[in-house]
Design a protein that fits this description.
The chain has eight helices and seven strands; from the N terminus they run ααββαβααβαβββαα. With 273 residues, the protein is α+β, with helices and mostly antiparallel strands. The strands form two sheets. A five-stranded mixed sheet has the order 3-4-7-6-5. A two-stranded antiparallel ribbon has the order 1-2. It is globular and about 50 Å long.
């Protein structure tokens, strides 16, 4: 047992070192965080009063500033999170999908926060931000035959490095809707929560195919009749996704500090967009 643990640690250390050498190449060309936020605001949603407007939604200047501060924290935390996730992918033989989009855009996050405030009157922007799991997000993918063992290994690696699992939504056994595992983790040094989605090629493809349908469904201007139609279209796409053996039984690794909170949101598929 001691030799096994030593071997696992050695492999983990080697994978982490490899990931650390790769991540700077991916982020070196990115604009400074402050510049990126200003560019995003200038592109869409900035009414010139310090607030944000878009798709019939809005944030006042004070709330908009809090979201910008949250985004800056996310960008700093990502520097510690990405090497761990990439190393977990190396160890579990996963393909990392969409790594260049690991940081949620300012406009997308503000739309999500503004939607939460509109849907729940009296909710504060701080409360809305506390529920954001995907400001930093990743997707790991395996072929069907390696999916179940891959998810189990990758999640165990993340937990072993001290990332607390705070959400585990396994929807492979749902009769309708999204198929996959959507998890959230708290990085110990920054305390920032990040998302990792675990997919097969078919489930990831279904997620991408239904994204525009989901975005239309979420708009305040979409009628109830149209919402129903859009949901039925999404259900049909996900119904065609094969379920890997053992996938419905996948559970979160045991946390060192607290148990994961199982969750089954209506649309976990699109939280990483």
């Amino acid at each position: 047992m001691t030799l096994h643990r030593t071997a696992v640690r050695a492999v983990s250390s080697a994978a982490l070192a490899t990931a650390l050498s790769l991540v700077p190449l991916q982020v070196a060309s990115a604009a400074p965080a402050g510049v990126a936020l200003k560019a995003a605001n200038a592109f869409k949603g900035d009414p010139g009063d310090g607030g944000w407007h878009g798709d019939g939604l809005e944030l006042n200047a004070a709330d908009n500033k809090k979201v910008d501060t949250f985004l800056l924290r996310a960008r700093r935390a990502e520097r510690n999170i990405s090497p761990q996730v990439r190393a977990a992918a190396v160890i579990s033989h996963a393909q990392v999908i969409g790594f260049d989009h690991r940081l949620k855009s300012a406009d997308s996050l503000k739309r999500k926060v503004a939607t939460a405030l509109k849907e729940t009157p009296g909710r504060t922007v701080d409360q809305a931000l506390a529920g954001i799991n995907d400001s930093v997000r990743y997707t790991l993918q395996w072929p069907d035959g390696r999916y179940t063992s891959g998810v189990a290994l990758a999640s165990s690696v993340l937990a072993g490095w001290g990332d607390d699992n705070v959400k585990w939504s396994n929807t492979w056994n749902r009769p309708k809707g999204y198929k996959g595992v959507n998890s959230a983790w708290k990085e110990p040094r920054s305390g920032h929560v990040f998302e990792v989605q675990f997919h097969t090629p078919a489930s990831k493809r279904a997620q991408e195919e239904t994204h525009k349908l989901y975005e239309e469904e979420r708009l305040p201007t979409t009628t109830p009749e149209r919402k129903k139609e859009l949901q039925e279209q999404q259900d049909a796409i996900f119904a065609a996704v094969p379920v890997p053996a053992g996938a419905p039984e996948l559970k979160a690794p045991v946390s060192r500090r607290h148990p994961a909170h199982p969750a089954h949101p209506a649309h976990p598929a699109h939280s990483a967009v």
